[in-house]
């Protein structure tokens, strides 16, 4: 939370649009979520973004939920409905698709590395868009569980050690693993203009994306998804879609200044 770019993104949009509100970050221990929700309601919160480890608890605390949140089993957005009631939504899934750009169910196939919370939203989003997916994870059983829960009859899963067996079948490769945090880099074959998307951003994924570009991949990092999901949450709360480019520019500038 202390490193979150979300306050920068949302407060910038609030200023741009002249909305009398503020977006603040709160660190909430795992066992304190229910009490924090009550406190924020009393402080006049109209909406919240939720990060790990509270996304499942946020869904459980809501009176109603959007289809994406219900299917994924996690909410990253809560909206106060009044009388202590909240609605849960998941903007990670549509935010990812907006950041990814146009896809073609007749041509595209996605290889997803990892099977954690972010991968759940991405598998849901791609399957909903009729894009076949391959899920590879260090623990194959988790990949199978994710495929069974949110994939379809075309979904394939396996061990991440098998990625060289599947990568040539994919037009889009999405890295949701934490390997960048430990300095690991996935060795990629020639990309030939295909898309490599790392949902991390900043120094964590710099080496991986540099390698991907050298191999001829079109690269994207997680900032575009972060800003897109934020914009969709903002639209839920204020009924206006803010300018994504301004949010992305502020994030890039902040990261460059901190480097």
Describe this structure in words.
- It is built from eleven helices and ten strands.
- The chain is of the alpha/beta class.
- The chain is globular and about 55 Å long.
- It has helices spanning 6-17, 33-42, 55-61, 67-72, 92-100, 117-128, 140-150, 163-166, 203-214, 223-238, 244-258; strands spanning 47-49, 64-65, 77-82, 85-89, 110-113, 133-137, 156-159, 172-175, 195-198, 218-221.
- The protein has a six-stranded parallel β-sheet, with helices on both faces.
- The relative contact order is 0.13.
Q: Characteristics of this structure?
A:
single chain, 259 residues, alpha/beta, 6-stranded parallel β-sheet, 4-stranded mixed β-sheet, 11 helices, 16% strand
Topology diagram in text:
Blueprint: H1 6-17, H2 33-42, E1 47-49, H3 55-61, E2 64-65, H4 67-72, E3 77-82, E4 85-89, H5 92-100, E5 110-113, H6 117-128, E6 133-137, H7 140-150, E7 156-159, H8 163-166, E8 172-175, E9 195-198, H9 203-214, E10 218-221, H10 223-238, H11 244-258
Parallel strand pairs: 2-4, 5-6, 5-8, 6-7, 8-9, 9-10
Antiparallel strand pairs: 1-3, 3-4
Helix pairs in contact: 1-11, 5-6, 5-10, 10-11
Short description:
This protein has 259 residues and is α/β, with parallel strands linked by helices. 44% of the residues lie in helices and 16% in strands.
């Amino acid at each position: 939370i202390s490193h979150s770019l979300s306050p920068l993104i949302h407060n910038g949009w609030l200023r741009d649009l002249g909305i009398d509100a503020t977006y603040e970050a709160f660190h909430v221990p795992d066992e304190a979520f229910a009490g924090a929700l009550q406190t924020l309601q009393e402080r006049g919160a109209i909406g919240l973004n939720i990060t790990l480890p509270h996304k499942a608890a946020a869904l459980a605390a809501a009176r109603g939920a959007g289809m994406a949140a219900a299917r994924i089993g996690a909410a990253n957005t809560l909206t106060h409905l009044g009388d202590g009631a909240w609605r849960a939504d998941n903007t990670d899934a549509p935010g990812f698709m907006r950041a990814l750009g146009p896809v073609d169910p007749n041509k595209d196939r996605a290889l997803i590395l990892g099977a954690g919370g972010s991968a759940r939203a991405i598998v849901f989003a791609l399957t909903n868009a009729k894009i076949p997916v391959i899920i590879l994870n260090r623990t194959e059983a988790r990949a199978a569980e994710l495929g069974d829960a949110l994939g379809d009859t075309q979904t394939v899963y396996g061990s991440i050690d098998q990625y060289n067996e599947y990568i040539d079948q994919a037009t889009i490769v999405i890295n949701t693993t934490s390997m960048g945090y430990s300095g690991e880099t996935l060795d990629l074959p020639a990309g030939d203009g295909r898309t490599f998307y790392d949902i991390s951003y900043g120094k964590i994924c710099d080496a991986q994306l540099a390698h991907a570009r050298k191999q001829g991949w079109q690269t994207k990092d997680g900032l575009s998804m972060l800003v897109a999901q934020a914009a969709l949450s903002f639209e839920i709360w204020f009924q206006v879609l803010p300018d994504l480019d301004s949010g992305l520019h502020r994030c890039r500038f902040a990261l460059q200044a901190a480097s």
